[in-house]
Amino acid sequence: MRDDRALLARAVELARRCPPSLTAFSVGALVVDADGTVLAEGWSRRRDPHDHAEESALADLGPGWQAPPGTTVYSSLEPCSARASRPRTCSELILAAGVERVVFAWREPGVFVDGEGAELLRAGGVEVVELPELAAAARTPNAHLLG
Predict the structure, then answer these.
(1) pLDDT tens digits along 86-108
(2) In what order do the strands lie in the sheet with 38-43?
(3) What is the three-class DSSP state of 6?
(4) DSSP β-ladder status, 127-130 and 101-106
(5) How far is CA 62 from the centre of its chain?
(6) Among 8, 28, 58, 71, which residue's CB has the most CB atoms within a 10 Å radius?
(7) What is the H or E stretch that residue 92 is in?
(8) Which residues are paired to 129 by β-bridges?
(9) Are 41 and 28 in contact (CB under 8 A)?
(10) Neighbours of 65 (CB within 10 A)
(11) What is the domain class of 4-142 according to CATH?
(12) Where is the CMP/dCMP-type deaminase domain (predicted)?
């Protein structure tokens, strides 16, 4: 069985690996199967200055990868619903992969865009769980952006 809190805490810790940025949040993400096995992990700017955490983790699973039943994405920040640097948002990538659940810690503040990822995912049939008790830890590597 999955332990949502522990897996989300692991995603929050991955955000600390992000190279600093003044134009994007530091985010960590995991892709986890129904049994709790971590299939992939990612963080913002992992390989490229424009990488988002969920995008990075899903990319590790290969082009066209489709989530097995019960797959969950854990993200320290609500998956993005708008972006200028790439053609597809993280919410779109999650939906395209057929992920059934998303668990996140911190709703995207309106620093760069208006976050609507949770709403878009729910509208696409994804179960969305917010664990706000981990939001303060998710904000820590982003404190310089929250001034």
Answers:
(1) 889 999 999 999 999 999 999 88
(2) 38-43, 28-32, 72-77, 101-106, 127-130
(3) helix
(4) parallel
(5) 17
(6) 28
(7) helix 90-97
(8) 103
(9) yes
(10) 17
(11) alpha beta
(12) 2-128
CB 23 within 8 A of CB 50: no
Strand, helix or coil for residue 41: strand
What residue type is 10 in one-letter code?
R
Q: Stretch 45-57: mean pLDDT, rounded?
A: 95
Strands 72-77 and 38-43: unpaired
**Whether the Cβ atoms of residue 113 and residue 106 lie closer than 8 Å to each other:** no
DSSP 116: -
108, amino acid identity:
E
The pair of three-digit structure tokens given for residue 34, joined into one six-digit string: 């129904």
Verdict on whether the full-model pTM lies above 0.85: yes
Q: C-alpha angle 82/86/89, rounded to 5°?
A: 40
Give pLDDT, residue 114: 74
Residue 29, beta-bridge partner list: 42, 75
3-state secondary structure of 12: helix
Domains in the chain: boundaries: 4-142
- Catalytically annotated residues: 54
Q: How many residues does the chain have?
A: 147
